Amino acid sequence: MPTTQEIIGQDLAHLWHPFTQMKLWPGEPPLVIERGEGNWLIDSQGRRYLDGCSSLWVTVHGHNHPRINRAIAEQLALLDHSTLLGLTHPGAARLAAELARLVPVDLDKVFYSECGSTAVEIALKMAFQFWQQSGRPEKKRFLALEGAYHGDTLGAVSVGGMPLFHQVYGPLLFDVDRLPQPHCRLCGLGLSHPSCDLACAQALEPILRRHGAEVCALIVEPKVQGAAGMIVQPPGYLTRLAQICRRYDVLLIADEVATGFGRTGAMFACDLEGVCPDLMCLGKGLTGGVLPLAATLAGQRVYQAFLGEFEEFKTFFHGHTYTGNPLACAAALASLELFAETRLLEHVAVLSGLLARGLERIAQMEHVVEVRRQGLMVGIELAADKDSGLAYEPGLRMGHQVIMAARGRGVVIRPLGDTVVLMPPLASTPEEMEHLLMAVEASIAQVTEGRA
Ligand SMILES: Cc1ncc(COP(=O)(O)O)c(C=O)c1O
Predict the structure, then answer these.
(1) CA 226–ligand 1 middle distance (angstroms)
(2) 268: Cβ–Cβ under 8 A, 6 or more apart, which residues?
(3) Can you give the pTM of this predicted structure?
(4) Were both Cys, which of 23, 173, 270, 390 would link to 158 (CB 3.0–4.6 Å)?
């Protein structure tokens, strides 16, 4: 077993970390995570940390779950990998049937890939090609929200709306029309909810009235814009978008990569408003957070447009080497069984109540300007001045300071700028939830108020 120092040495020599300014890496000695046990991560020194970010929003039933491990091991003994190009295998077929049963009605065709970005890329390409093959080739434009995040491949970046991440790639991207961000506290329309009558959603109507004939699809993170800082949409927002899309025959793509699989309190965020999109992107929690697998789901209307004789070339010419990997499918099937057996959504409802109560305390803190929550997705926004909402100087990296302080209290979390994000595993216990809340409250007090 290499020593911690040897691992760090190899890391410093060769690893380029995601979303990381490598000049500043690691700053402080990095944690070397060697083991996972339930909702805890264990480092090379044997120290334990509650996984408060679900290892980047993926962990559902906890790490190293015996049931998921067994399913993977059993699958490994049978078949490690086999392509879905020209062949099929039981896991991919069974999982597709399960997903089709779980998601809102009408989405009964499943196309696999490996990560959220590719699930989005596939949805964009499907939407585009759908219109090309449905006698409406002029429908080419995409609509998305300000502050959207849909992944890091170029199509996903095109529909993304976070200048910090996306601006530099501008010349490579396709044009996208934007809807205002549904962030009530900072309403760009200067209105307040509910008297606004969802004007931010209603803004879609004039755009489609003028340009609907050229618009292919609207893509949205349903109910919560995650990477933007857990921006929770007002009730009815998603429904309104869906209604307007229908009226103007524009496809609705629901990017449930972050919100899917119980995160928001329902199996899918769309369920919270009974919305049935035309395409749905799934990833992250699909395998319980154990192996990389993603899926893009389509309804019959979209699917039928791709059917034809061979020489018509209506095929969806897209596929990845590891598409529908059997091990990942086995993990996903075991995870879905656990959802039912452990009545996980009921447990999430209990945890959501605990979180809501604990967050009331945090919301009162001197430098907490807003707490946003939907199910087990939480954003705690810090500000230099609570009343005016004046932000801290970016160089202070207050969010980063808070998460480093939380590490000292046995919690791993990640910030989005100065928004502290909490995304505990869905199977967290009430005691673990309390530990998370206490550590976060103490860390915010330490960093923003200088309290020990
Ligand atoms: C809404 C949403 N879509 C897509 C992605 C991209 O997923 P991945 O990182 O697996 O490519 C993310 C990642 O955070 C996401 O939050």
Answers:
(1) 9
(2) 102, 103, 104, 222, 254, 256, 259, 260, 261, 280
(3) 0.97
(4) 173
